[in-house]
Amino acid sequence: MMETIQATDTVRFADIENAASTLAGQAHRTPVLTSRALDRHVSARLFFKCENLQRAGAFKFRGAFNAMSRLTDHQRRNGVLAYSSGNHAQAVALAGRELGIPTTIIMPSDAPQMKIDATRGYGGEVILYDRETHSREDLAAQMSSERGLTLVPPFDNQWIVAGQGTVARELIEDVGTLDSLLVPCGGGGLLSGCAIAAAAMSPGCKTVGVEPAAGDDGVRSFKSGTLQSVKNPDTIADGARTSSLGQITFPLIRRYVHDMVTATDDQLIATMALLAERLKLVVEPTGALGAAAALQGIVPIEGQRVGIVISGGNVELARFAHWL
Fold first, then answer.
1. Is 215 designated active site?
2. Nearest to 261 by CA among 224, 187, 211, 223
3. Does residue 135 carry a catalytic annotation?
């Protein structure tokens, strides 16, 4: 039977506060950038929380380190297992290096090579699989059983969600209350954690999750009230190609998130160009989802104070240049 990090099915703001203490001195307190030109472009005040400048290049380090810090001595000695298209893989490998925990990562063979290389560079053992013919969950169950590894899930875990929620906690601490908060969504760990933090710290704030248009399972789930899925969506936002929201993240999103929207790949590319030109930032397509909702007019924000989570910057530069 596969062992996984145990957690309850409810996440509270106190868990995010606890995660912030665990992450102090480990995760970067990433900067918040502004641009008068972009403010004029949308007639709003925009605050960009730059998790592309986080350790391992994305917000994922927060949740991975917070969760792996809870492991027993026995679990630490045996090591952990994770599956990811890239950013969670790198985060788990880096957290394992910092905590002295062996890590094994199952990654799709079509994951960006830079993410595969970075995961190995942090000390993780990478196992590649074909996402068209194999299930990463089945492979994880098999490997966990054979090797005695503890699974660190990419999003559906109390401590993962709490760690990711520290992103919005820091943002609101730094800039004050917000009218809207726009957050990328794949499996929903970042979105649900940020929504909980916003509800506690800025009660009037409307939190909106943003998915790629080709992978709109979260939007459909949110609007229907029933968990929906999608298989291998064709989108450049590789970090949001998850099949569905989680058993923990879905009810949290239904409770704390105010709306869900989508952005097309073309809108993501246009947004990446604006972020490069105006903020001098390299942002991966998934990382640009929240910004696209604001800069491409997907969500009405005129006259508002808007927080935007830039979730990651792990993109191959040749591909980045080709898109732009």
1. yes
2. 211
3. no
| CB 205, CB 197: distance < 8 Å | no
Measured over the CA atoms of residue 29, residue 170, residue 6 and residue 237, the dihedral's sign is negative
**Domains of the chain with bracketed CATH:** 10-58+157-323 (3.40.50.1100), 61-151 (3.40.50.1100)
Q: Which residue bears the tokens 């503890």?
A: 150
CA atoms within 13 A on the CB side of 187: 21
Q: Which of 156, 170, 211, 238 does the annotation list as catalytic?
A: 211
- Active-site residue flag, 217: yes
Q: How many CA atoms lie within 13 A of 233 on its CB side?
A: 23
For the chain, give the number of residues.
324
Q: What's the whole-model pTM score?
A: 0.93
How many Å apart are CA 49 and CA 35, to the nearest integer? 12
3-state secondary structure 210-264: EEEHHHCHHHHHHHHCCCCCCCCCCCCCHHHCCCCCCCCHHHHHHHHCCEEEEEC
Q: What is the mean pLDDT of each run of 10 residues along the chain (324 residues)?
A: 50 97 98 97 98 97 97 95 90 97 92 89 93 82 88 94 98 98 97 98 98 96 93 88 91 96 98 97 97 98 98 92 91
- Active-site residue identified among 49, 51, 60, 165: 60
Q: Which two tokens stand for residue 95?
A: 């957290």
**Strand locations in the chain, DSSP E?**
3-4, 32-33, 45-50, 80-83, 103-108, 125-129, 150-151, 180-184, 206-212, 259-263, 305-310
The number of angstroms, rounded, from the C-alpha of 54 to the middle of its chain's C-alpha atoms is 12
